[in-house]
Specification:
Number of strands: 11
Strand order of the largest sheet: 6-5-4-3-7
Distance between the termini: 61 Å
Order of helices and strands: HHHEEHHHHEEEEEHEHEEHEH
Largest sheet: 5 strands, antiparallel
Structural class: alpha+beta
Number of helices: 11
């Protein structure tokens, strides 16, 4: 919000806090002056007076003092001042993340300190921030926290880990796995470990919820590859935490109401869109086969995969299974 390169970071932070407090009081119709500001831990009276003079009527004219109501308020054109550097609404994606963080810590002892930090990062009073909403998302399993902490400790030491794991497929047996832990991924309420599976000799994802008896392998270390980042190998498309195969090209036709929705969003870094009279075709690269299948099935009769051929066959097989269930 406010940044003057000629003064210290501490002074810039203090002036930003003063601005937020005045905005907040103005929104609530409350009185705010030197007396009330001195209760906000802004330094000595002399320090506070210096900052108020800098941004007040005799200085940069960001704030003015109403002598009739004995309160500070923001000047009408304060956002146009030279030291007001950013617009808090420029990155609404970041605002969504901050709002989710605020929701997560509500009703906890940390809530007050989180509010102060979010006001600083969002560059607006929390009352204004309340006008931004993020729909509820699946919550992370609290039972995963000890596992997360243990894995993270081993991971930053580049230690091999061993655990018992049962996969997602019906009838799959509980197996002992030895894994080089690369990263922990947080995705839509589920926490995953991404790493190299020695048995499969390939990278795999493991759901923390299904991991049992996690321990290191006699303090054995592994060499972390330079391309260990999940996004480097599986970040071509935006379908969450899932690995299936090497990246391939997908071509999918969309019909009806889904056409508008498809064109309004970014699904992959290299996506292209082709349009005809009755359909919109999305072409993109991805390695997240299962996630894409779930996505297309959720569109019902308004989505039809065209390529690759093996994926089209999986889609047809799944539809036949669904048709059998519908006959029950």
């Amino acid at each position: 919000m406010y940044y003057d390169e000629l003064i210290s970071r501490e002074r810039n932070d203090r002036i930003n806090k003063i601005i937020r407090l005045i905005q907040k009081a103005e929104a609530k119709g409350e009185i705010i002056n030197k007396t009330t500001l001195q209760k906000a831990n802004l330094g000595s009276p002399a320090t506070l007076g210096r900052e108020l003079s800098k941004i007040g009527d005799e200085g940069e004219q960001l704030i003015t003092f109403d002598k009739h109501k004995l309160t500070f308020r923001m000047n009408k054109n304060w956002k146009k001042a030279k030291n007001i550097k950013t617009d808090s609404m420029m990155n609404y994606g970041s605002l969504g993340i901050l709002k989710s963080l605020l929701n997560q810590y509500q009703n906890t002892p940390l809530y007050k300190s989180v509010i102060e930090k979010i006001e600083e990062l969002a560059e607006m009073p929390i009352e204004d921030f309340s006008r931004i909403a993020v729909p509820p998302k699946p919550e992370y399993n609290k039972d995963d926290q000890p596992k997360f902490s243990k894995i993270f400790d081993y991971m930053i030491q580049n230690l091999k880990i061993q655990f018992y794991y049962k996969g997602r497929w019906h009838g799959e047996e509980r197996k002992n796995r030895v894994v080089h832990p690369y990263q922990l991924l947080l995705d839509n309420g589920t926490c995953y470990l991404y790493g190299y599976d020695e048995e499969k000799q390939d990278e795999r994802l493991f759901v923390l919820r299904r991991m049992e008896e996690i321990r290191h392998v006699n303090m054995q270390k592994f060499d972390l590859p330079t391309d260990y980042e999940f996004l480097l190998k599986h970040g071509f498309s935006k379908f969450g935490a899932y690995t299936f195969k090497e990246p391939v090209k997908y071509k999918i036709d969309f019909y009806g109401n889904t056409q508008i929705w498809i064109k309004e969003n970014t699904w992959a870094d290299d996506q292209t869109i082709e349009e005809s009279d009755d359909k919109t075709t999305l072409i993109f690269t991805s390695s997240q086969d299962d996630k894409i299948l779930e996505w297309i099935l959720s569109c019902g009769a308004d989505a039809k995969p065209v390529e690759p051929k093996d994926f089209v066959q999986r889609w047809k097989d799944k539809i036949r299974e669904m048709a059998k269930l519908a006959e029950i």
